[in-house]
Amino acid sequence: MAIPASTTLPAFIRGDSYSVPVSFSGEDGTPLDLTGWTLIFTLKFHRMQPDDEAVLQKRMTVSGTTAVMYLAPEETNELTPYHYEYDVQLSTPDGSAISTIAIGRVEIQSGVTHALI
After folding, report:
1. HSE-up of 104 (CA within 13 Å, CB side)?
2. How many domains does the chain have?
3. CATH number, domain at 32?
4. 46 in any annotated domain
5. Can you count the helices (H) and strands (E) in the chain?
6. Helix (H) or strand (E) holding 8
7. Is 41 in contact with 103 (CB distance < 8 Å)?
8. Nearest 5°: phi and psi at 76?
9. Tens of pLDDT along 32-53?
């Protein structure tokens, strides 16, 4: 896989739900069915922060040619407003290979309402 370009995700408000859509395709653009693979989203204050200190890390099993990494309000509600670093990795079903498919920054802003309904 090619080295991913750095991408700034759209900012969002802490306590809101947030979705990161991902589609899988080969070098020729043909959709790839990656059912059974694992998608891993990691959010940190800075890239060199150890993984066990990540602000948020979420895993999901892929089903088909697209996936949506969904962050629920209860997962984002306690995040400190900040410009975070993130990456999205893809792991083979047996865990023998991992590829970083996206990397960059995302800003989490403070909203007015702090309570979850």
Report:
1. 14
2. 1
3. 2.60.40.3580
4. yes
5. 1, 8
6. strand 6-8
7. no
8. -105, -15
9. 999 999 999 999 999 999 999 9
Environment class of 114 (CB within 10 Å of its CB; exposed 0-12, middle 13-18, buried 19+): exposed
Determine contact, residues 21/66, Cβ cutoff 8 Å.
yes
Tell me the residue range of the domain where 26 lies.
6-109
Residue 49 CA to residue 109 CA, distance in Å, equals 21
* pLDDT over 60 (residue 15): yes
Q: Is a pLDDT exceeding 60 seen at residue 1?
A: no
pLDDT at residue 93 greater than cutoff 80: yes
| Spatial contact of 45 and 83, defined as CB atoms under 8 Å apart | no
Residue 18 resides in a domain: yes
Does any domain span residue 51? yes
Residue 1 located in a structural domain: no
The two tokens of residue 99 are 């590829």
